[in-house]
Design brief:
Number of helices: 18
Helix content: 25-40%
Strand content: 15-25%
Number of strands: 21
Largest sheet: 8 strands, antiparallel
Radius of gyration: 22 Å
Shape: globular
Number of domains: 2
Distance between the termini: 35 Å
Low-confidence stretches: 1-25, 360-365
Length: 556
C-alpha cells in the first residue's frame, strides 16, 4: 500500500549517496544521534542497501533506542537527493490533527489555554506519519525488503538496549508524566524510578508492532489490527482518534525550497516546516553584509537581528500549505530581504516590539536527526520527532507505540506561546487533518567544492542552530567544527538572546548588552547536530556527530 498523493523516485532519511565516476573513490557515511542506529545504517549499506534503505533502518532504530526523541508514534521530514535523476524531493511524513480536533480544544471555559492538555496524555497526540514514510521509502526507492530494513530495529526492541546518561536525563525530566500511565512507566522506567545508565530497556510489544508493519507493508498500522488497538487505547484514555484518521493518513511529496547565499546553493524544507523559509530569509538578510569584516560581537549581533526578523515572519505567515496560503516566494525574495535589512543597525538592537505586530498583515522539540551518504550519489537528510521528550508520555496499550504530543506545535490560542515559547496566529491554528507548523530543518548546502548534509533537533532553536552551522560551512568549517559551534538564539519573542552554557564570552555579553540586547544563558548545552560533508573533487567524505549528545558517525 502506498500512502502518498504523488509518486517520485528516491526518498530517504538524512542520507547522502554520491557518484563520482570510475576514477574517484566514493565513500559511504552515516551520522546519527545514537551509536546503535548508526550501526544499523552501516549494516544495511553493507548488506547491499542504498542510502534510502539505510534511512529506513536508522529511523526505525532511533524509534527504539531514542524514545525521548522520535518514534513510530511520531513523524518527520525527509529531504532527498536522487543523484541519477538529478532531483531533490521532500517527503512530508509529519503528523496531522485528528478529524475531531477543534480550534479551541485546549482552552478552558474562560478561553484560557490549558497547557497540560496539549502536552500530556492521548488528547495531545496527532496522527503518526513515520510508519507511512518508511513504507513509502521502501516501496519506491529501496533495494532491500522492508522486513530486512526493519530487522535491526526489531532486534533492538526484542533484545533491548542499554541506557546512557542522556536517557537518564530525559527520563528524569518526564518521569512525573510517565508515571501517570502504567504501560509507559513499565517500559521506560525502572519500577517507577528513573533508570540509571546501564539499565536495559526491552520493548517486546514494539518489536511485534515493527514486525507487523514489515509483514503487512504498513497496512496493519493504518487499517488493521494495530490501528484498531491504538484507537481503542487512545479513546479509552480520553483521546479523540478514530479509525478513519489512520486510514486517511497520507505521506505528501513537496518540492524543497531552493535559494543561494553568494555561491552556495541552499536546499531546505518547505512548509509545513518553517525551517527552510526562516533559514533562507535570514541568509538573504545577512548576504547584504560582509560578515568577515566584523568583530565577533557585531557578527553575533547581525545574525541575531536576522533571526529576529525571520522568526517574526514565521509566527505571522507560516502554517500547513494545504490549509493556508503561505507567501513563500515573497518571504524568500531579495526585495523582502532588502526591506528587512534596512531596519537593522550595526550598533543597536531592534526591539521586537518595534517590528510590525503579528497579525497586522493583510489577510489572504524533542527531536532527532541523521545524515547518510552512500557511494552512488543519493543523499538524504531526515529530522524526526515526537515533540518534547517521550512525547505525550503514554503508549497505546499492547503495541509499544509511544504517542507524540505534536498537537502542542499548533497555535492553540493566537499569540499564546507553546512549550518552546513560540507564538503564532491564525495560519497555524488547529483544524481537522491539518499539520502543525514545525521548526525541523533538514538541509543540503552545495558549494563549489563541497556538499553538506545537515540537521539537528532542538525545538524552536533548530533553525538558529542550522543557520549558525551553515555560515560556518560557508566559511570553510569542517564537520566537527560545525557540530561543535557555540550556539545562541533569538526567536522574536520573548525579546532576548538565549545562549548555551559558555556560548558567549564575557566580553561578547558585555558588548551585546551595550547594544541593547537582553541576554539569558540556558545553563546547559543544547542541540544534537549530525553532519556529513562530501568533497566534490575526489568523493572523500567526512562526518561528525554532535559532542553534546551520545551519537556517532562512521565513514567507510
Amino acid at each position: 500500500m502506498t500512502y502518498v498523493r504523488y509518486k517520485f523516485r528516491y526518498i530517504s532519511v538524512v542520507i547522502i549517496a554520491l557518484w563520482f565516476g570510475d576514477n574517484a573513490q566514493a565513500e559511504s557515511a552515516v551520522a546519527s544521534a545514537h551509536p546503535a542506529a548508526t550501526l544499523a545504517g552501516k549494516e544495511i549499506l553493507e548488506a547491499g542497501g542504498n542510502a534510502f534503505d539505510a534511512a529506513i533502518a536508522v529511523a526505525a532504530a532511533l524509534a527504539v533506542v531514542e524514545p525521548y526523541s522520535s518514534g513510530i508514534g511520531g513523524g518527520g521530514f525527509f529531504l532527498l537527493h536522487n543523484q541519477k535523476e538529478g532531483v531533490n524531493l521532500f517527503v512530508d511524513a509529519r503528523e496531522e490533527a485528528p478529524g475531531k480536533a477543534t480550534a479551541g480544544m485546549y482552552l478552558d471555559s474562560s478561553g484560557d489555554f490549558v497547557r497540560d492538555r496539549s502536552l500530556n496524555g492521548p488528547l495531545a497526540a496527532a496522527i503518526p506519519g513515520l510508519p507511512a514514510g518508511l513504507v513509502y521509502l521502501s516501496e519506491n526507492f529501496a533495494n532491500l525488503t522492508l522486513q530486512e530494513n526493519l530487522m535491526p530495529a526489531i532486534r533492538l526492541a526484542r533484545e533491548g538496549f542499554l541506557t546512557g546518561d542522556r536517557y537518564e536525563k530525559m527520563a528524569g525530566y518526564r518521569a512525573p508524566a510517565l508515571r501517570l500511565h502504567k504501560d509507559a512507566a513499565k517500559i521506560f522506567l525502572d519500577q517507577g524510578n528513573v533508570p540509571k545508565a546501564g539499565f536495559r530497556v526491552i520493548q517486546k510489544d514494539l518489536a511485534e508492532t515493527l514486525q507487523a508493519i514489515a509483514v503487512s507493508n504498513g497496512e496493519s498500522f493504518y487499517r488493521g489490527d494495530l490501528a484498531r488497538k491504538m484507537v481503542d487505547s487512545v479513546v479509552s484514555d480520553g483521546g479523540i482518534w478514530r479509525i478513519e484518521d489512520l486510514e486517511n493518513y497520507e505521506v505528501k511529496i513537496r518540492q524543497p525550497l531552493v535559494s543561494s547565499y553568494h555561491d552556495v546553493k541552499i536546499i531546505s524544507s518547505p512548509p509545513p516546516s518553517s525551517g527552510g523559509i526562516a533559514l533562507i530569509e535570514a541568509l538573504n538578510i545577512l548576504e547584504r553584509y560582509d560578515l568577515k569584516k566584523y568583530e565577533r560581537d557585531t557578527y553575533i549581533h547581525l545574525v541575531v537581528e536576522a533571526m529576529r526578523r525571520a522568526y517574526r515572519d514565521r509566527a505571522d505567515y507560516l502554517g500547513d500549505p494545504d490549509f493556508v496560503k503561505v507567501p513563500v516566494k515573497e518571504l524568500s525574495s531579495q526585495i523582502h530581504a532588502d526591506l528587512l535589512a534596512s531596519s537593522i543597525s550595526d550598533t543597536e538592537a531592534t526591539p521586537s516590539s518595534s517590528l510590525p505586530q503579528i497579525g497586522s498583515r493583510p489577510k489572504g522539540t524533542d527531536t532527532t536527526h541523521f545524515s547518510i551518504v552512500d557511494r552512488l550519489g543519493n543523499r538524504v537528510a531526515a529530522t524526526l520527532s515526537i515533540n518534547i521528550p517521550f512525547g505525550a508520555a503514554i503508549t497505546a496499550e499492547g503495541t509499544g507505540v509511544l504517542l507524540n504530543n505534536e498537537m502542542d506545535d499548533f497555535s492553540a490560542k493566537p499569540f499564546t506561546p507553546n512549550t518552546y515559547g513560540l507564538v503564532g496566529a491564525d495560519a497555524n491554528a488547529i483544524a481537522p487533518r491539518k499539520r502543525p507548523l514545525s521548526s525541523m530543518t533538514p538541509t543540503f548546502l552545495e558549494g563549489t567544492d563541497r556538499i553538506a548534509i545537515m540537521g539537528t533537533p532542538g525545538g524552536s532553536r533548530i533553525i538558529s542552530m542550522v543557520l549558525i552551522s551553515a555560515l560556518d560551512f560557508i566559511n570553510g568549517a569542517e564537520p566537527i567544527e560545525m557540530v561543535s559551534s557555540k550556539r545562541f538564539h533569538h526567536q522574536y519573542l520573548p525579546d532576548q538572546i538565549y545562549f548555551e552554557k559558555d556560548g558567549l564570552t564575557s566580553s561578547e555579553q558585555e558588548s551585546l548588552s551595550k547594544k541593547g540586547h537582553k541576554l539569558k544563558e540556558s545553563g546547559r548545552n543544547y542541540g544534537n547536530m549530525q553532519v556529513i560533508v562530501i568533497d566534490k573533487a575526489d568523493g572523500s567524505v567526512d562526518a561528525a556527530s554532535d559532542p553534546r549528545g551520545e551519537g556517532s558517525s562512521v565513514v567507510w
